[in-house]
Amino acid sequence: MIQVDNIHFSIDDKKILEGISARFEPRRIHGIIGPNGSGKSTLLKNICGIWEPQSGSILLDGRNVTGIPRKELSTLVTLVPQNTTIGFPISVFDMVSMGRNPHLGRFEGLRQKDREIVERALRQTNISALKDRNMNELSGGEGQLAIIARAIATEAPLILLDEPTSELDIKHTLEIVDILYGFKEQGKTMLVTIHDLNLARRFCDTITLLCRGKLHYSGTPEDAFDEERIKQVFEVKVREYKHNDGTFLDFYR
Questions:
Q1: What b-and-e string marks burial along 100-138, b requiring 16 or more CB atoms within 10 Å of the CB?
Q2: DSSP-assigned states of every residue in 80-102
Q3: How far is CA 82 from CA 79, 137, 143, 195, in A?
Q4: Which of 72, 85, 120, 121 is deepest in the core (most CB within 10 A)?
Q5: Which CATH topology does 2-252 take?
Q6: What mean pLDDT is predicted for residues 39-59?
């Protein structure tokens, strides 16, 4: 359970999050949507403890994030960032192995158990054949899968994903969606920021809508894309189309 209670966050006196309150139930895929600059990525960084809100609280199963030791917090929640560019040479296997760091002692190397977990994470993301490749030699989709594999290796029950499908082709997008469904079946909780509103509408269990740092909606996907709400937040109009495969959204000016 993630409980966000009236958090405010600013950088250099610029307000980015203003009074955000929301609950995220376990074992679900929670989509976070909103225009660029609405505070989506900032919310994830506050939840995982990279940044600390100036006021308000964030509770993981009733524990305040700010009171959880960093190493322990890294075993409870992991972040898959937007940018997978790595500024130094490192193999895919070694990158995924970094997900085991929170479970190791100081100067302790990978144990047999850790190697098995890393190999399993590589298999789950279908990148075992790439494990000896340099991260900087991978395509955008392959690199994203490697970073997701690192998150799997942490074994954290809460996974935050910041635009995991942005700029990916349809093949890699569907691979990542399948992985997220697999996480859900394993009992993990996911918060996913996403620009593709049709994708969010189809695979997320809940939708949280942010605009200019404020919460505009949190609830079911069926009610999230109200015509007046979309017009107010995204400054576009929306129509819903029913099809045998589900409901699709058409946006226009």
A1: bbbbeeeeeebeeebeebbeebbebbebeebbeeebeeb
A2: E-S----SS--BHHHHHHGGGGG
A3: 10, 18, 11, 12
A4: 121
A5: Rossmann fold (3.40.50)
A6: 96
Q: What is the pLDDT of residues 229-248, one digit of tens each?
A: 999 999 999 888 877 777 78
Residue 181: C-alpha distances to residues 91, 105, 174 (Å): 27, 32, 11
Q: Is the pTM of this model over 0.90?
A: yes
Give alpha helix (H) positions in the chain: 40-47, 70-76, 92-97, 112-124, 140-154, 170-185, 197-203, 221-224, 227-234
List all residues 6 or more positions away from 187 whose beta carbon is below 8 Å from its beta carbon: 26, 27, 157
Residue 146 C-alpha from the chain's centroid: 14
